[in-house]
Write a structure and sequence with these properties.
This protein has 287 residues and is an alpha+beta fold. It folds into two domains: 2-119 and 275-286, Diaminopimelate Epimerase, Chain A, domain 1 (Roll); 123-272, Diaminopimelate Epimerase, Chain A, domain 1 (Roll), CATH 3.10.310.10. It has helices at 32-42, 75-89, 130-134, 167-171, 177-187, 224-237, and strands at residues 2-10, 19-24, 46-54, 59-65, 70-71, 96-101, 104-111, 114-118, 123-128, 150-154, 158-163, 194-201, 204-213, 216-220, 241-248, 256-265, 268-275, 277-286. The protein has an 18-stranded mixed beta sheet that branches. A hairpin with a 3-residue loop joins strand 10 and strand 11 (158-163). It is globular. 45% of the residues are buried.
Length: 287
Amino acid sequence: MSLPFYIVDVFTDKKYAGNQLAVFLDAGNLSSDEMQKIAREINFAESTFVTKLDKENNKAEIKIFTPSQEMQFAGHPIIGTSWVLINKIFDNSPENIKLNVPIGPIAIHQSEDLIWLKAAQPKFWDIFSKEDFTLFSNLKNSDFENQFPIQEVTTGSAFVMVGLSSKRALENLVLDKDKTHKWLKNNCKTAHQGLYFYYLEGSKLFSRMLCIEHNQLVEDAATGSASTCLQAYLLKNHKPELELINYQGDYINRPSQIHFKGKLTGNDFDIKIGGKAQFIAKGEWEV
């Protein structure tokens, strides 16, 4: 059996930047174990598998895998898969489609060359002390932004938001792998555990996402799910309406731009992230 697949770079306006994604079509007959093995073989941050396709109504059902686990929600795979479906699979490049992922349906909109998704309502979990982070990183107390709490937030995948006081602190960040892994296991609520460090300077936002996979400390080029969490966090703590660009991936030579457009009205979070995608390749995968 062979599967058609596409490779795209997501959250970037040029090739060979942003976050890589493999999108596998006609994957409805694959088991989760087979999908996991393929994702591990290709070894991108995530790969997606289109298990159901409704071309008449511009709908699809997908599953998302990192090299080590299945994800309930992830931003760059949803943005990249949507770009492939809109521009390569569905007829007449529809502006609006719907993707079903494990947490539920996600509304997608293409406006010019940006793909936008609307995230689920956030949940705000535990607040942590900055002193915790000085134990497994090179950060000093003065390196932390003190206005907002350090907090775990989820919109489907959970991340700990850690605000820093300068771009230099973000750039020079170093984590101890073993101590970081122990802290994440002891403190985070879900199997997927990530730290999202950010620096906000006026309307400019810079970020880095680090996590442990296969006992290795890894950094992601562009993390859409973490960006939806950060947007919710900033709407709650910074200001109730946001429109800016989140710059990620610069420190691993995969510069990325994640567009934020959000609004908080009462207790309702309208969280949208958007990005461009670049077509890299297509082919057939032998199963």
